[in-house]
Each structure stands twice: as C-alpha cells, then as structure tokens.
Specification:
Arc Repressor Mutant, subunit A, flat
Length: 190
Amino acid sequence: MRDSTRLYEQIDAERAYLLRFALAKLRDQDIAEEVVQEALLAALSGSANFAGDASLRTWLTSILKHKIIDYQRRVTTERERFASAPSAGEEADDWLDALFDETGHWRAEFAVWTLPDAAHEQRAFFAAFERCMDKLPTTTAQVFFQREVMGEDTETICKEFDISSSNCWVILHRARVALRECLEKNWFGK
C-alpha cells in the first residue's frame, strides 16, 4: 500500500508537465485537461505495468501521447460522421438511428463545446506565436520551448545543449525580448 501511495503521489506530481505537453499539442485548455485526466486514469489503473525501465515521466508521456492520438481519431470520426449526414432530400431516419445504440444511448460521446470566438482567437494567437517562434534562431527557439512551454528544468536544458546556466538565461532573455517585439508588431498591434 505504501509503494502504491508513493507512486500515486509521483504521478500526480507530473500532472503540470503533462498538461503543458498536451496544451502544446492540442492548443485548447479544456481538451488538454480532459486528455491528461484520461492519461492519468490509465496510468493509475495500469500502474502494475510500470516496471521502472524508463523514467516515470517518459512512461506517463507515452500514455498521454496515445490518449492525444485517440482524441484526434475521435474528432476525425465525428467530422466524418457529420460530413456524411444526409442532405435535405435524403432519408434521415437511417442516419439518425445509427447515432444511437439498441438501448437508446449515444454510440459515441461528443466533444465539449467551447465558445467559437474564443477558440478562433486562441488559434489565431498561437498561429502568430508560431510565426514569431519560427523567426528565432533554431537553438534559441528550442531552449525557449523546452523551458517555457514544456517546463524542463534549466539543468536538463544545459546538458542537452551543452551550454552554461548563465548562457541559458541569456538565450531565454533574448527569446522573450524577440517574441515580445514580434507579438507586439504582429498580434497586439493589429
């Protein structure tokens, strides 16, 4: 019991990292939180399968990646279903009946609805942000992304890029200044 409690605490401690990862991939806070919850539930129910061959973060990220793929497949399936809806003159009963099972319940759960204007605004902002990130030097963009979006600690980033911690902070400062200028010009100034 003590080992499982410790594992649950360690899994919970990785939640913030997983949420940042999902948000970077899905670009929607509500959907990212939903997918992370699914991943955490899967990890907790399958905790006996965690052998410790990889780090806990790597194992959880792998589960999360699969949940993100499942979500994207679900969205694609729903789009196809919607696109195959009959037009005005076609037989609608067969199409409508196919949405429900024999007990009268929906066959598939629907995605959570968001405010269209807010979702559009968020997508537009992230598109502008990505264009600004593309203007940064490659290493600067990678260091910034890993530190500020993925939440990696400075020590890990320094080892990966073979830079000192003071150099890392200079790179991050320059990235922030460049992104601020770019966003002021291309997003806030529009």
